Amino acid sequence: MRVSGSGMRGAGAVAAVIVAATLATGCSTDTVVGQPTAAVDSFAPSADNRDPSLRIRGVVVTEIAPGQPHVLPTQRVAYPSIPPVGGPHDSQWAACTGVVYSKALRSENAVHSLEHGAVWIAYDPAKVSAQDQATLSTKVTDRQYTLMSPIPDMDHPIALQSWGHQLTLDSATDERIDQFLVALRENPYTTPEVGATCSSPSFDRTNPPPYDPTTPGPDAVPMTGAR
Q1: In CA terms, which of 3, 101, 119, 145 is 20 to 30 Å from 107?
Q2: Would you say 117 and 186 are in contact if contact means Cβ atoms under 8 Å apart?
Q3: Do 100 and 82 contact (CB within 8 A), yes or no?
Q4: CA angle in degrees (0–180, nearest 5) for 53-92-133
Q5: What is the pLDDT along the chain (227 residues), one digit of tens a residue?
Q6: Which residue pairs, CB below 8 angstroms and at least 24 apart, start in 202-207?
Q7: Distance between CA atoms of residues 113 and 200, nearest Å
Q8: What is the pTM of this model?
Q9: What's the gap between Cα 186 and its chain centre?
Q10: Gap between the Cα atoms of 45 and 53, Å rounded
Q11: Residues 157 and 174 sit within 8 Å (Cβ to Cβ)
């Protein structure tokens, strides 16, 4: 089973995809994939290796159909995970030109950035020291198609997201961070909107739309996009 942005199908379907270390086919729910590899350069995508992240230990791949609908700035989406990895999203994307946000972002804006090919590094400020936050920021600062922001009360200290992909970590010095960035940042085979800009001049980087920690209510937009 090949997993890429161009190969994902289904009307807003959200289904985890198993990919074994040997890339054998099979499907299940929230299954980790891959094996650790030391050489970062080998994780660059190519026509013959469209999703090198499948070799990264711990990466979870979720199938999300492209062409997800936009929601209003006042609407919330019933994302199945925090941080989310795709689905309906706000029409305005969070600036992802190597921006390190000091405040938690509204998920619906950050997901739109993922659709453009960005990698989003999220961290729990209560679980990640100031020194480790600074280490993470060096992976992002002034690096196109990346963004970083805190999210309080996450299940893990650190979570990396690209469209349909997630990797949770405990350490800011884990070598898999660089592997994930090389494999999925602007990956033309997994990004729904290849070539879309990460520049978002009107997006407030100092006081962005805030993250809402409460559970979405019954009026939230479902992952199918249908109301």
Answers
A1: 3
A2: yes
A3: no
A4: 50
A5: 333 444 433 434 333 433 333 333 333 334 444 444 447 889 999 999 999 999 999 999 999 988 999 999 999 999 999 999 999 999 999 999 999 999 999 999 999 999 999 999 999 999 999 999 999 999 999 999 999 999 999 999 999 999 999 999 999 999 999 999 999 999 999 999 999 999 999 999 999 999 999 999 999 999 998 66
A6: 202/92, 203/92, 203/93, 203/94, 203/95, 203/109, 205/95, 205/99, 205/101, 206/102, 207/103
A7: 10
A8: 0.84
A9: 12
A10: 9
A11: no
Cβ proximity of 119 and 185 under 8 Å: yes
CA distance 128 to 144: 24
- Strand segments, DSSP code E, in the chain are 14-17, 32-33, 59-64, 70-71, 89-90, 97-100, 119-123, 146-150, 158-162, 165-169
Alpha-carbon distance 190 to 194, whole Å?
9
Among candidates 219, 215, 226, 227, which has minimal Cα distance to 80?
A: 215
Look at the block and give the residue holding tokens 């050489």: 39
Provide the residue type at 100 as one letter.
Answer: V
